[in-house]
Amino acid sequence: MKQIIDRVGEREKAYVAEVMAGAFRSSTGAVFMGRLEQAFAAKFGTRFAISMVNGTATMHAALEAAGIGAGDEVIVPPLTMASTSLAVIHANATPVFADIAPDTLTIAPDCVAAQITPRTKAIITVAVYGLSPDMDPIMELASKHGLLVIEDNAEAFLSSYKGRLVGTLGHCASFSFQSSKHMTSGEGGVVITNDEEYAVRMRKAAGLGYTTLGSKKAKISKDEIQHPAFKRHDFLGWNYRMSELCCAVALGQLEHLDELVEVRLHASRAYREVLKNSALLAPQRIPENCLSSEWTTACLLDAKRVSWEDFRRKFQEFGGHNYYAAWSLTYLEPLFQKRLFGSRGRFIRRQYPPGLCPVAEAVQPRIIQLKTSFWDTSQIEAQVAALAKTLKFFGD
Q: Catalytic site residue 392?
């Protein structure tokens, strides 16, 4: 067995020890938050980064900061974790689902165009499994119709599109540090942008709307907050600030992000080598002008030949991991089908019947998500061998 890299290394532990040594005194607060945000913005070549408690809060704050709310519509893809759409509902806006491309599995620009109405205010794209959608035509649509574009890049760290880093394509971009992601602090997230006024509003949306917060200022000084004349709040905000402990871990992870991403790419290259001549299992197509960071290697099974359950069962018998299916399409969840929106239901005018996104509905039951987060070479070799045996068993 050869260890590739530690998932959490000594650097992260040392940074956490620094935070603990400060005993959480307010005078030492936000030190690692500032370091993380500065480093993350530099890594992605953007002017501003605002850290938050998770990658759902980031999208909600981005919508609130743009003034999007009741009566507004936000176009989203159906094939992704439900948080993308839930953030829209949190802002009292209405999710509108646009179908996906059948081979890349990403939101399709022509389907986005078909869903634009006078109520549309934003598009949230998702770099699903690490692959960017075709962003140029989406940004052209946004420019034509005056729409905000938020990139949901929870699964895409250091992916690229036509030579540009994913995260620098829209008006802002959201990343997640949840435990399954390329870099993690257990929970957490960050949003990046080049627009300073927008950055200030997102900071305030995440920081209880404190008056003195800024694009790069996350902490209120004691001189400010202790004065009797200090007026604290001039913006409706939430308490979405990321803790110093999480910021410390995330900074350590960021400082070796290239290595963490390479682990995923190494595993994916090995899977794709086995799959290159397969007629049974087709991996997500990566266009030549794109690089996916392969959060997982998603594949489409020929379910006419083998059922999803039978393929998984045999893969496990040969030593394969317990791979996941794709998420149920968001609008087919009971929340949407039964309109369990609570008081927000009065703002949501859309209905969500089956058949809204026929391509996504056709491919979702066939998706196999092969895990790429293996931290030694023997684990990867075992998974690739299991995949090869499974394909051979089914006559592929």
A: no
